[in-house]
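Dear colleague,

As promised, here are the two records you asked about, laid out in our usual form so they can be pasted straight into your sheet.

NAME FIELD: protein one
SEQUENCE, THEN STRUCTURE:
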Amino acid sequence: MKKILLLFTLLLGISCGSYAQKFALIDMEYILNNISTYETAQEQIEVISQKWQAEVEKGQQEIKGLYKSYQSDLVFLSAEQKTKRENEIVEKERDVQQLNRTYFGPEGELFKKREALIKPIQDDIYNAVKEISEAKGYQLILDRASAESVIFASPRIDISNEVLAKLGYSK
């Protein structure tokens, strides 16, 4: 009876061991930093962002100039002129706020540009990770760059270089 129980326990242990899950890690920052098209896209986004930011700041400077002019002329203006100048300033502020939202808002031009340039690269990385995962039988692949709770991970399970090689960026 003991032999049967021992044999059963051994078979159970072997069968549980054969169902062990395989894990791997990638470092998305490392991968992206080694892809030249990503760096080019980031530079394009930075140039566009700076250009748009300069436009917004120019509008804000115009508002400051209008306000200073209004403050200095305040004693000489009639009630009607004061109202007109105040309305000009308020309208200009609205225009600058709208311009800021158009460029930098959640659905703004910068978001759309970033999505157009970066999303294809991220999709390629995702597809490469998926192919490697299916080929090697990984059940879970974590991104070490965004997984704040990963304190230590063995470099043996990091497949970032495999992903780069799959994308044609051998390291």
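NAME FIELD: protein two
SEQUENCE, THEN STRUCTURE:
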Amino acid sequence: MARTTIITGIIITTMLTDAALQPLLAWTSPSYPIGAYTYSHGLETAVDDGRVRTATDIVAYVEAVLSRGGGWVDAVLFAHGWRAAGDAHAFDDIADLAAAFRGSSETMLESLQQGRSFLQVTMKAWPHEALTAFAARRGDLPVAHCTVMALACAAHGLPLEPALHAYMHGMAANLVSAGVRLIPLGQTDGQIATATLSRLIPGIAERALATSLDDLGTAAPLLELASFHHETLYTRLFRS
């Protein structure tokens, strides 16, 4: 339910109840123990070969991830997963697609390890029968982060649009954090990059909400190549 408040000419619309906001903040926090900080989505390769050197470069890289790379795929599948959460068969089909929809072994590991960790932690800390039932159906099959978080959001009554924004912001913030460590870059520049990306996310999310599974695809070959080449870097701080 939305609530609009006007404060000295500023219109503030609250889309979440306080109770719903708490799990969303927890699940997208860097402290949520799913191992997100160990992945760079190929960014480490781009820094190593000199393509990413500044905050502006990081913004361009992460925008590509979110708007036409793996992050775009996740955003669309998150939306479809949330909408299908009440139908086990339909949701499991989306979970299968999400588990397979990666261009390299490292970005697949990035998605699936975080997905499995998210499911295990959330079932204990924020239990819900929908998560338990999904875990039982899934067994040892791979679990993508985007779909299991979408399921958790739907099960706990978190509205789709703010949940998707939070998911995408969490991915963007994690990649910026990786860039801050890799370049290295000052913390202020990192926050400027995050703020810049936050202004781009609403438009990307709007497109994702309107995109069908038949139209889903990627157009980011340099990102995929960065991930491929990451496997053979001489030294690596990240797992992707």
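A couple of things worth noting about protein two: The beta strands are 3-7, 10-14. The chain is about 65% helix and 5% strand.

Best,
R.
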